Each structure stands twice: as C-alpha cells, then as structure tokens.
Amino acid sequence: MLSDRVTLYRGLLRELRLSLKAPRKVNKHVVAPFRSIAEKLDDSNPRARQDYDNAINFIRAQREHKRLLERYNPLFDLTAQERIKATANRVGFNMPKIHNEQ
Hints:
With 102 residues, this protein is mainly alpha-helical. The chain has helices at residues 2-19, 28-40, 46-72, 80-90.
C-alpha cells in the first residue's frame, strides 16, 4: 500500500509541475494538504483514494483545457484592443489609426 500512496502522490506532483508555466518546484504550502491526505490513504477508505484520483484528473483536465484554448482560439490571451484589431485583420479590414492630440 505504501508504493500505491507514493505513486498517487508523485502523480499529483507531476501534474502540478506540468500545470505551471515554467515547470519548477511546486510551493510547499500547496502540496502539504495533498501530502497529508496521501499519508492517510489505506484500504479501509476507498473513497479517499477516489477523491485523490479525482484531484489528479481535475488538474490534468484543467491543463489540457488551457492548452486547447490556446491552440484553437488564438485570440484567447489578447487584450480587448488587440482582439478587435486581429478580428478586423481576419476579415480583411485595417483598423483606423487613432491620433493622440496633446
């Protein structure tokens, strides 16, 4: 059972690291609650293991969702003005130049 707990905990750490922009060590305060839960996992409480698996799947799904948004929606992370300009360019228009009067 110890190796099973270690596998779950390492899987969670892997998903947390992959979900960061630049993969690096995950903050200890984020990992501490998951570690305490992993230490308490045993065969008498299958629901705790299922909850842990659900947490890992949720983090993985969030990472995949973000990747798909970035891939299929190129305007995802643009500001409102940049989004308007990109949309106009897509249909063949150019945005008028705005002159600042000072």
